[in-house]
Amino acid sequence: MKKFVSFALVCLFAVAALSFAATPDPTGKCDAMSYSTTDVFGTIVRTIPSSPPGASCAWVGMSYANGELLQFQNIASPAGVTMYRKNPNTGAVIATVVLAPLNGGYIMEAAFDGTNIWVAQWNPTGYIRQLTLAGVEVSSFPWSTGGSPRCINWDGANLWLGTNVSSNNTNLYKITTTGTILQTWATGTVVGWYMGGDWATNAPAGGQLVIADNVGNTIKRLVISGTTVTIGNQVASPAASPDVAEGLAYDGDLLIHCGAYASAGLVWFIDDGYTSGPVPMEINTSAFSPPVTIPANGGSFLYNINVHNTGTSPVSFQVWNKIRDAANNYYMVWGPISRTLPGGANPSRLLNQTVSGNLPSGTLYFISYIGTYPGSIADSSFFTITKSAVADGNPWISENYVTGNFLDEYATSTSAPTQFAVVGNYPNPFNPTTNISYSLANAGNVQLTVFDATGREVATLVNGYRDAGSHQVTFDASKLASGVYLYQLSSGSQVASGKMVLMK
């Protein structure tokens, strides 16, 4: 397994060639616009655009969850707080969620525990609330100790809460998820005024809590030792006056920071001061039926992908694919796709990758990455394919995409498919017919397609509206050769697939 390699790359999800001057390393170092890793606390690595929060509003808490940036907009009206789920590479809004459980109150910060978010609410009364990413309350408890609750963080087992009585009169609490206080620190002038914060796992034990102080307008790493809290590192917030430091999140490699009013129109990604360490994630990919040759007009191929959490705890990660050509240009062809895998899990899947006719001919490296896109690569795997200079007479393919079930049961997005699956086919192996069963959670347009081992479509069994429930369709392969075939079920954004063997 490779160590994390720190890079910064603002990528468009369209097919775009990126030049790389040095000899490419298909095992990881393939991002062209990489920054030199200084590991200097506070170095601004990259930015994304951020619009102002609107009149009588402010950007406050931030969190990083499942490959998305969560940014919270406090509104000076009974409407309460809105959570914006954003693409951390572009700043584009993925979803907008009104946090109704706050009942018009304000929040100051949020923390992601791997499944849900914890928010600190200070108005109209102090509350700590656990919410789903869809904004539904899971649990809550009141908070009235040591001032208003502002800065909430998650260390993997417990919550850390910074509270404010007044400027330079602050407290820090380590608490359970039900509100039991485990330890208290009077942080006084060490922290002028708690606002954003996060638990930066790269740092040594005792120095993992990083906070935004909007009195001093600084970002601080706090060092917690026994009964004392001191400042380990401190830099000025790039949110220049009259703006103030507010949200702070951590994506596993970089600190993410915003100002209350987005005066600069930016969200900043900031070096946390430490080199990322290894994480227990491995990825292996291989062509299902090598060698792989793609016609000049584009085509597709099947490949096996295996991801392995070699640790004992759940790990959230992303997977994405790129293709590198002979001229050392790189093309984004899939992802990033977010998943969370339990400790020890080692699943494999068969996927279908479509390759655009726009890619150049010759030998191409097909590379799969696992980590946190785009900045951190935990591991990667590759194999070669050939893009022919000769077309095969089929229609031109203009896009690169992947189809198939990629660990959908481990999906960490609230939009993940549920109760949608290919149940299987019987008999299997078969000759020459088999019945494919599938289930639909909701009615809608459905397509059930069969591909051969090279990824070429050989039959469309269903293409139209179907009711919710269980269905079955017969596949007649009397005109096809013996071999392995892949069937793929799709409806809207949901995709499932399976394998079957024809034996004549």
Put the structure in a nutshell.
With 504 residues, the protein is mainly β.
Name some characteristics of this structure.
single chain, about 500 residues, mainly beta, Neuraminidase, Immunoglobulin-like, 3 domains, 6-stranded mixed β-sheet, 4-stranded antiparallel β-sheet, disordered N terminus
Question: Would you kindly provide a written description of the structure presented here, covering whatever features stand out?
Answer:
- With 504 residues, this protein is mainly β.
- It folds into three domains: 38-271, TolB, C-terminal domain (Neuraminidase, 6 Propeller); 281-410, Immunoglobulin-like, CATH 2.60.40; 421-502, Sandwich (Immunoglobulin-like).
- 0% of the residues lie in helices and 54% in strands.
- It contains no helices and 37 strands.
- It has strands at residues 5-6, 44-49, 57-65, 68-75, 81-86, 93-98, 106-112, 117-123, 127-131, 137-142, 148-154, 159-166, 169-175, 181-186, 194-199, 209-213, 218-225, 228-236, 245-250, 254-259, 266-271, 281-287, 293-294, 298-309, 315-324, 330-341, 348-356, 362-372, 376-387, 401-403, 421-426, 433-440, 444-451, 457-466, 469-476, 483-491, 494-502.
- The strands form nine sheets. Strands 1, 23, 25, 26, 28 and 29 form a six-stranded mixed β-sheet that branches.
